[in-house]
């Protein structure tokens, strides 16, 4: 059960906008959720301040309507506060919703907020930023630049492959050095890379799987790097990209860790959950169980034996 009082905050710039806000408020009230206030936010840049003000005013649950970018923009203000996040996925990709096993239907998502269970999940950290899904370097940055709001509204989830094709045509490879402060892996130099990613969650990019066993509650980051390779190797990676099986290829570098320092040549922008807010060199880490979220009662998120999972993933 969520904690009261709750505050509803909806990013009305996310696709269905004001209609989602009105339906969510009506549904949550009908389900008996104790809403202290409800805010329809038209300017996404003000979302962090709206959330912060709600917490300062005593909210114990933030019911947030929006996409992955909306959640990522406010996650730092929820991290390690004990305030519960109830997510209403109204964005384009909704990768965090997939990771948490949330329904994407608005009314069913409201029912989950009212009737679900509260669990702890991890947040990734890069510099001063926190992320829930993934931070990427390389091709994903180009995709983000191509993925404008008009394209997302017009094509929905199809905007991601369209933006990827556009970005690939202009892309230049890069080299990277990965250093592991905990000594759990040897430092490594990687050349001619298309993409390097550090992932906290399981899904990203509109439904692609980070790795077959990746989870948002295992206290581990998944790090993978994809070299340009031959056309055949690129085809093999692309063919298995959505399932995450590509990380098992000999062509792809993949490890799990808690901390990694990444430097690149030339310097690269870092896509942090869809926002270009950092640059290499940078250190990536994790906040274990730093965010409380509402998930379905039968969800496996947040109930795993973390120790057993980490041992299994290290083999």
From TrEMBL:
It comes from the Bacteria. GO terms for cellular component: cytosol. The keyword Transferase applies. Gene3D superfamilies: 2.60.200.40, Probable inorganic polyphosphate/atp-NAD kinase, domain 1 (3.40.50.10330). Its EC number is 2.7.1.-. GO terms for biological process: methylglyoxal biosynthetic process; phospholipid biosynthetic process. InterPro entries: ATP-NAD_kinase_N, Diacylglycerol/lipid_kinase, Diacylglycerol_kinase_cat_dom, Methylgl_synth, NAD/diacylglycerol_kinase_sf, YegS/DAGK_C. One of its GO terms (molecular function) is kinase activity. Residues 1-130 form the DAGKc domain. Keywords: Kinase, Transferase. The keyword Kinase applies. NCBIfam families: PRK13057.1, YegS/Rv2252/BmrU family lipid kinase. This is Lipid kinase.
